[in-house]
Amino acid sequence: MLEQLNTTETKSENDSKKTSIYSLQLQQLKDWLSENGEKPFRAEQIYDWLYKKRISTFEEMSNLSKSLRDKLSNHFELTTLKTVIKQTSSDGTIKFLFELFDGYSIETVLMRHDYGNSVCVTTQVGCRIGCTFCASTLGGLKRHLEAGEIVAQVVTVQQALDETDERVSSVVIMGIGEPFDNYDNMLSFLKIINYDTGLNIGARHITVSTSGIVPKIYQFADENMQINFAISLHAPNTELRSRLMPINKAYKLDDLMKAVRYYIDKTGRRISFEYGLFGGVNDSVEHAEELAVLLKGLKCHVNLIPVNYVPERDYVRTPKDKIFAFEKALKKHGINVTIRREHGHDIDAACGQLRAKERKEETR
After folding, report:
1. How far does the signal peptide extend, from start to end residue (predicted)?
2. What would you report as the CA-atom Rg of the chain, rounded to the nearest whole angstrom?
3. Above 60 in pLDDT, residue 209?
């Protein structure tokens, strides 16, 4: 099945549900207005209500005619997410467990940095990639999120920040799910949050991460967007990577690295490699030396991630001295490397962990 990840779609459980208005790109909204006898310029006004004023009902769009508001209400859903749990860490990180219209749940995380507020969004209910260290994949994939359900995560977090006059300054697509397995909705989400008439999140303040669906990497390179791009690598050789990440059996490491080189050559942009450190598994100096050889000559950056403990998984965190030794070995070879700052250590920080803990029926 993994070989077909780039084309396989999982059907929504409620195809009769109205489309989320947050799913419409600006031009799509203009086209819909024209097709329904309305002026296309109303799209900018609607976007202003959705993303600047962040209203919660169509009736609040007071500069639109009653007939247009009725049309919008009849055709579209103004997606709202029910907050089931809101965990706040001592470092300011906030993890939300949101319930969707069909009762499924997703996680969204607000992380506070010196440079601003970052939101980590989810793209699927569950995940089928099957990484052996990740809580997100427990129970497999339930369904894809539509673009509007991804957008609504950012809008909902921004509404929470409105109370303190703060704003979302960056977005990372690293939550539950494999973004490239839900490619079209992910791409639409990127365009919607990037519009200056919308949430106006700059492309260089958006990062998308993939576990390595090779055909989609080529496709994403050809989009030629200024979005930051990251690969979940986690191993310096194909044998170890296959043990940690079953997707490597479908898309071998050599093929992944060819796609990476294509992306860098096509876009001229640096790529990031996420490397989770698992105690006694992939964290030796020898592994670091092997990783340096793999990445030699690439325009790249390595983000070392001390893993969060997940009860359902057997991996343990690498000791600090070994983390620093790994970092030092990479730097010795001229590899640009940082150690990711830990967020939410006193809450259910690992991706998918809160959902697994609170929604056991979804993650069996």
Report:
1. none
2. 21
3. yes
Q: Is 223 annotated as a binding residue?
A: no
120 assigned binding-site residue: no
209 is in an annotated binding site: yes
Side-chain half-sphere exposure of 124, counting CA atoms within 13 A: 27
What sign results for the dihedral spanned by CA atoms 185, 190, 193, 194?
negative
**Which amino acids are annotated catalytic?**
107, 351
pLDDT at 136 over 60: yes
145 assigned binding-site residue: no
Minimal CA–CA distance to 159: which of 71, 101, 86, 64?
A: 86
Domains contained in the chain, CATH given:
19-77 (1.10.150.530), 87-358 (3.20.20.70)
pTM of the model: 0.91
For residue 362, what are its two tokens? 């979804």
Q: Between vectors from CA 268 to CA 265 and to CA 269, what angle results, nearest 5°? A: 120
Q: Per residue in 260-276, pLDDT tens?
A: 999 999 999 999 999 99
Four-point Cα dihedral 117, 200, 225, 106, nearest 10: 50
Task: Tell me: is residue 178 an annotated ligand-binding position.
Answer: yes
Helices (H) and strands (E) in the chain, counts: 12, 14
